[in-house]
Amino acid sequence: MHKLDRYDLKILRILSEDGRITKSALAEAINLSVTPAWERVRKLEGAGLIKGYRAQIDWAALFRSQQVLVEITLARHTAQDMRRFEQRLAEAPEVGFCYATGGGVDYIAMIRARDIDHYQRFIDQLLLEDLGIERYFTYIVTKTIKPDSGHAPAELSDN
């Protein structure tokens, strides 16, 4: 991939805000004709900078659910133990996201559960699977202040 220029950066910012923008509207927004603008999009996709396009679904509006944040610390920090734990969480449909972190805990995950009982049964199952969880701390989400928008970082904004 060539070095990104201002057109590429603007394309990435625009697509992060509106993945359904038309080819012509995108071209107009970056001040290029349609073909060169779309060729740039294809190159950005080919380079793996655009991983995909998706809809942001308001799952809470569709289904009654409880979001729970959980901090998890593993007893052992071997590559094998961490890989096994990470693979299990990556495969679990209850896990909305999971981040490996530096500092006081090893992982922070967001669990979507029907209710608190469902969440606890999920955690109990993880503990029964002997994934090396030493301790975990549970935080019930009571209100969403700002959800992850998927938008570009501030340094790519026009401001």
From TrEMBL:
<feature type="domain" description="HTH asnC-type">
    <location>
        <begin position="4"/>
        <end position="70"/>
    </location>
</feature>
<dbReference type="InterPro" id="IPR036388">
    <property type="entry name" value="WH-like_DNA-bd_sf"/>
</dbReference>
<dbReference type="InterPro" id="IPR036390">
    <property type="entry name" value="WH_DNA-bd_sf"/>
</dbReference>
<dbReference type="InterPro" id="IPR011008">
    <property type="entry name" value="Dimeric_a/b-barrel"/>
</dbReference>
<dbReference type="Pfam" id="PF13412">
    <property type="entry name" value="HTH_24"/>
</dbReference>
<dbReference type="GO" id="GO:0043565">
    <property type="term" value="F:sequence-specific DNA binding"/>
</dbReference>
<dbReference type="InterPro" id="IPR000485">
    <property type="entry name" value="AsnC-type_HTH_dom"/>
</dbReference>
<dbReference type="InterPro" id="IPR019887">
    <property type="entry name" value="Tscrpt_reg_AsnC/Lrp_C"/>
</dbReference>
<dbReference type="Pfam" id="PF01037">
    <property type="entry name" value="AsnC_trans_reg"/>
</dbReference>
<dbReference type="InterPro" id="IPR019885">
    <property type="entry name" value="Tscrpt_reg_HTH_AsnC-type_CS"/>
</dbReference>
<dbReference type="GO" id="GO:0005829">
    <property type="term" value="C:cytosol"/>
</dbReference>
<dbReference type="GO" id="GO:0006355">
    <property type="term" value="P:regulation of DNA-templated transcription"/>
</dbReference>
<dbReference type="GO" id="GO:0043200">
    <property type="term" value="P:response to amino acid"/>
</dbReference>
<keyword id="KW-0238">DNA-binding</keyword>
<keyword id="KW-0804">Transcription</keyword>
<dbReference type="InterPro" id="IPR019888">
    <property type="entry name" value="Tscrpt_reg_AsnC-like"/>
</dbReference>
<keyword id="KW-0805">Transcription regulation</keyword>
<dbReference type="InterPro" id="IPR011991">
    <property type="entry name" value="ArsR-like_HTH"/>
</dbReference>
<protein>
    <submittedName>
        <fullName>Lrp/AsnC family transcriptional regulator</fullName>
    </submittedName>
</protein>
